[in-house]
Amino acid sequence: MMDDKQLQIDVSRFPLKHETFERKQELGDKLVRLRTVSRHAEVRRRNMAIAFSSAVLAAAVVLAAVFMMRVSTIGSGSTATLPCGSVVAVGQGGNVKYRPFLWRFGHRVVELAAGSARFSVVSGQGEFSVETGFGSVSVLGTEFEVCQQDSVTAMVRCFSGKVAVNVDGAAPVEVEAGEETVVTGDVVAPVRALGDNDDNEEIEVNEEPETIIYDNEPLATIVGEMEVRFGITIDGKQLCQGITYSGAFYTGDMDLTLKMVFGACGLDYVIEGNQVALRKNE
Questions:
Q1: How big is the CA angle at 15 (ends 11 and 17), to the nearest 5 degrees?
Q2: Which of 54, 57, 102, 226 is the most buried (most CB within 10 A)?
Q3: pLDDT tens string for the chain (282 positions)?
Q4: What sign has the CA pseudo-torsion 211, 215, 217, 219?
Q5: What's the per-residue H, E or C state across the chain?
Q6: What is the distance between the alpha carbons of residues 130 and 90, in angstroms, rounded to a whole number?
């Protein structure tokens, strides 16, 4: 038989039961905290990646929209070929705008902002439409002229083919070759034959000098008109951004026009030959 001394066990070599559980609990809590921190970090990284991708996509959409809606302007007295091959001749004091990118998808629409313009439209490429202050003129292929006196009064002349004059509140009116109609407000007058003085000659680009009155017109547009009208090149066009001009433009006097326009807009300039360099007034 074993005596009492042999039965004695040195329990100091073994951890107490409750101490073991406490150690396991402590390690388990640390693992839980580490997993929680790791999950939170992963969620943050994923959210940041999503936010960055969204920002890049939004910027791309904005840039694409800006490019798609970019506007080209054909100034007074100019003749230009549109992307579809149609030709527009803008009369004195006229202004035509269009969006080149949209023409790739058959959106053949121009805006006659002021004055008169004559159009020779290429057929076989879908409808061609001229938007004006009084309504719109749509064609499939023809030659016609729109003379807009203001936002409610205009004359539409057709030289070949046929056009439709569309005014809100009135039925479309068809104008055939050799006919014209007058629009006043929402009333379209009955068509009539072109008068004896309404011949079929193209609009002259270089007509007699006249005075054009602008009202809050972007300076960049007027600078383009100066280059066409006076045969000059203007440097420093970036200074024109965000500036508008209200006043006279003398088509027969370049020096007076430069002085009045740039002086009113707070810009100075230097002329060397046919080069005009813009700079800020000091």
A1: 105
A2: 226
A3: 445 555 455 545 545 455 555 666 666 666 667 667 667 667 677 777 676 666 666 655 655 555 455 778 888 888 888 888 888 888 877 888 888 777 777 778 999 877 888 888 887 778 899 998 888 999 877 888 888 766 667 888 888 889 999 888 778 889 998 888 888 777 788 888 886 545 454 434 334 456 677 777 888 888 888 887 788 889 988 898 888 887 778 777 888 889 888 888 889 999 988 899 998 876
A4: positive
A5: CCCHHHHCCCHHHCCCHHHHHHHHHHHHHHHHHHHHHHHHHHHHHHHHHHHHHHHHHHHHHHHHHHHHCCCEEECCCCEEECCCCCEEEECCCCEEEECHHHHCCCCEEEEEEEEEEEEECCCCCCCEEEECCCCEEEECCCEEEEEECCCCEEEEEEEECEEEEECCCCCCEEEECCEEEEEECCEECCCEECCCCCCCCCCCCCCCCCEEEEEEEEHHHHHHHHHHHHCCEEECHHHHCCCEEEEEEECCCHHHHHHHHHHHCCEEEEEECCEEEEEECC
A6: 13
Question: How far is the C-alpha of 172 from the C-alpha of 194, rounded, in Å?
Answer: 19
| Nearest Cα residue to 128 out of 112, 142, 118, 139 | 139
Q: What are the C-alpha distances in Å from 52 to residues 28, 47, 57, 61?
A: 36, 9, 9, 14
The answer to whether 278 and 267 are in contact (CB under 8 A) is yes
Contact 134, 156 (CB under 8 A): no
Pull the structure tokens for residue 105.
């998808």
